[in-house]
């Protein structure tokens, strides 16, 4: 897979105050993903499901985009509910472009493994 088609990892860290992420070392996870996995890059957003999160998606997504976004955060169905309309605005189908991962209530090593499995599934070993 060419560099420009590698998945991008976006971690939604739920303001940094959510008890669901209390066991997760955010920077250890992000540095693992960006340095060890086949992603174009990895970024953190503080709260994707509120107005500035919508603004971020609207600014960030491009019509005709072919990339996959692996999004760490809360429940996968909740993520779909909260982001799908912005994807539709850009003519993109959430289910085709997003791999939502629920990383709540996990130790950092468990979250790293879950993200790694998702990226390997997309890109191959
Ligand atoms: S999208 Fe989910 S993980 Fe992100 S801020 Fe909202 S509730 Fe928290």
Note down, in words, how this protein is organized:
By secondary structure, the protein is α/β, with parallel strands linked by helices. It has a single domain (3-123), classed as Rossmann fold (3-Layer(aba) Sandwich), CATH 3.40.50. It contains five helices and four strands, in the order E-H-E-H-E-H-H-E-H. A four-stranded parallel beta sheet has the order 2-1-3-4, with helices on both faces. Strand 1, helix 1 (26-36) and strand 2 form a beta-alpha-beta unit. The N and C termini lie close together (11 Å). 26% of the residues are buried. The model has no long low-confidence stretch (mean pLDDT 96). Bound molecules: iron/sulfur cluster. Iron/sulfur cluster is lined by residues 12, 14, 18, 47-49, 73-74, 78-79, 82. Iron/sulfur cluster binds at residues 12, 14, 18, 47-49, 73-74, 78-79, 82.
Structural class: alpha/beta
Number of domains: 1
Write out the distinct hetero groups bound to the structure: iron/sulfur cluster
The radius of gyration computed from the alpha-carbon positions, rounded to a whole number of angstroms, is: 14 Å
Percent helix range:
40-55%
How many DSSP-defined strands?
4
The parts where pLDDT drops under 50 for at least 5 residues are: none
**Order of strands, widest sheet:** 2-1-3-4
The CATH architecture category equals 3-Layer(aba) Sandwich
Please count the helical segments: 5
Mean pLDDT: 96
Distance between the termini: 11 Å
CATH class: Alpha Beta
Largest sheet: 4 strands, parallel
> What is the assembly state of the chains in this entry?
single chain
């Amino acid at each position: 897979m060419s560099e420009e088609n590698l998945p991008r990892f976006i971690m939604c860290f739920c303001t940094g105050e959510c008890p669901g992420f209390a066991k997760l070392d955010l920077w250890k996870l992000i540095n693992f993903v960006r340095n060890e996995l086949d992603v174009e890059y990895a970024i953190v957003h503080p709260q994707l499901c509120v107005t500035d999160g919508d603004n971020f998606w609207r600014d960030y997504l491009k019509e005709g985009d072919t990339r996959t976004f692996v999004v760490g955060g809360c429940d996968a169905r909740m993520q779909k509910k909260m982001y799908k309309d912005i994807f539709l605005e850009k003519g993109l189908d959430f289910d085709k472009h997003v791999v939502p991962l629920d990383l709540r209530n996990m130790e950092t090593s468990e979250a790293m493994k879950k993200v790694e499995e998702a990226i390997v599934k997309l890109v191959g070993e």
